[in-house]
């Protein structure tokens, strides 16, 4: 079962999740990924391995859940007062986050997990942030592109270049993508 669905938001469930997530992050700082195991995480978290298996199913799903927590935006995107600068600021931040070493690993963990909904959360997080930017621009009376245009012509190229290109794109490149969709 994915921790996103059916998990109580407080009480013991939240304490277990926090302890297990903390244990994973601590162990990732101390050991190589190949050394991580459910029994090791459980021991560090102070829970039984069966608790981890029951809740997450295995190590990959646990890593995906930790990644999901780390990739979830902390708040709304920056409001600079204009669509172009809002989208550029967001694109620059997004590019910086997913091209960082931890960001790359978090995305890989989500995509590698068995839970199909996990990789969809990346799209959802982007969509929510972009929708906020587009709604603010609409409220200011600015013409806005369709959200799919932003996803297809800003987000998708960023993801492709970060994960499949031999060199990382410059932060300004994400801003150039925004300029292109707003020029059309």
- What is the overall number of helices? 9
State the shape. elongated
Distance between the termini: 44 Å
Mean pLDDT across every amino acid position: 89
Work out the helicity level.
Answer: over 70%
Considering the protein shown, what is the CATH homologous superfamily of the largest domain?
Tetracycline Repressor, domain 2
User: Could you say what the CATH topology of the largest domain is called?
Assistant: Tetracycline Repressor, domain 2
CATH architecture of the largest domain: Orthogonal Bundle
SSE order, one letter for each helix or strand: HHHHHHHHH
Cα Rg: 19 Å
Estimate the strand proportion: under 5%
**Count of distinct structural domains:** 2
Question: Which regions have little confidence, pLDDT < 50, spanning 5+ residues?
Answer: 1-8
Largest sheet: none
Total strands: 0
Computed structural class? mainly alpha
What top-tier CATH class of the largest domain fits best? Mainly Alpha
Key words describing this protein structure:
2 domains; mainly alpha; disordered N terminus; 184 residues; 9 helices; Arc Repressor Mutant, subunit A; Tetracycline Repressor, domain 2
């Amino acid at each position: 079962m994915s921790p996103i669905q059916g998990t109580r938001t407080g009480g013991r469930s939240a304490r277990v999740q926090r302890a297990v997530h903390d244990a994973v992050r601590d162990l990732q700082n101390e050991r190589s990924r190949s050394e991580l195991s459910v029994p090791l995480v459980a021991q560090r978290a102070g829970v039984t391995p069966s608790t981890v298996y029951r809740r997450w199913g295995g190590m990959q799903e646990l890593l995906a859940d930790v990644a999901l927590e780390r990739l979830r935006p902390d708040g709304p995107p920056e409001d600079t007062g204009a669509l172009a600068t809002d989208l550029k600021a967001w694109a620059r931040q997004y590019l910086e986050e997913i091209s960082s070493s931890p960001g790359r690993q978090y995305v890989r963990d989500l995509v590698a997990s068995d839970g199909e909904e996990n990789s969809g959360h990346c799209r959802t997080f982007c969509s929510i942030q972009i929708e906020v930017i587009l709604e603010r621009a609409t409220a200011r009376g600015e013409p806005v592109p369709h959200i799919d245009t932003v996803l297809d012509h800003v987000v998708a190229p960023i993801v492709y270049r970060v994960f499949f290109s031999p060199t990382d794109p410059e932060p300004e490149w994400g801003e150039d993508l925004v300029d292109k969709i707003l020029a059309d």
